[in-house]
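// run 5 | inverse folding | seed 20
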């Protein structure tokens, strides 16, 4: 994520997250990143995550791993910004969570931000509980 964020600096970039769940459903592992869709559009303070090729990618993934690897969420960069979701991020992520077609009622969002992308935030958007901050690493500079 950091490498990709640096490659696209000063613009935002991001992809979907690939992972799996524990048998009891209480733990999610993020194992890989989906490819960057060619129709994605990153600007200084906004990012549109494209969709081209993703359906195929996830279908193949399901087949290869017998359904044990699948979509678990999204990540994107906030170049020189706080690794916390914007109002738009909150809305988009909740939309994904509520979308029954995506079938991801507990959707992860990872944001890499800060100077040189050394800050990170991990959030879960839950259909039942809303936004939950799982992890937040921010450097306090005085
Ligand atoms: Zn954002």
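// decoded
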């Amino acid at each position: 994520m950091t490498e990709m964020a640096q490659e696209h600096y000063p613009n935002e970039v991001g992809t979907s997250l690939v992972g799996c769940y524990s048998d009891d459903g209480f733990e999610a592992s993020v194992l890989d990143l989906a490819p960057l869709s060619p129709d994605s559009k990153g600007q200084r303070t906004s990012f549109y995550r494209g969709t081209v090729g993703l359906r195929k990618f996830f279908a193949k993934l399901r087949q290869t791993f017998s359904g044990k690897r699948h979509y678990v969420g999204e990540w994107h960069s906030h170049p020189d910004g706080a690794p916390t979701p914007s109002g738009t991020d909150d809305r988009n992520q909740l939309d994904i969570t509520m979308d029954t077609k995506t079938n991801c009622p507990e959707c992860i969002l990872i944001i890499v931000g800060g100077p040189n992308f050394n800050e990170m935030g991990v959030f879960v958007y839950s259909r039942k509980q809303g936004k939950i901050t799982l992890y937040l690493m921010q450097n306090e500079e005085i």
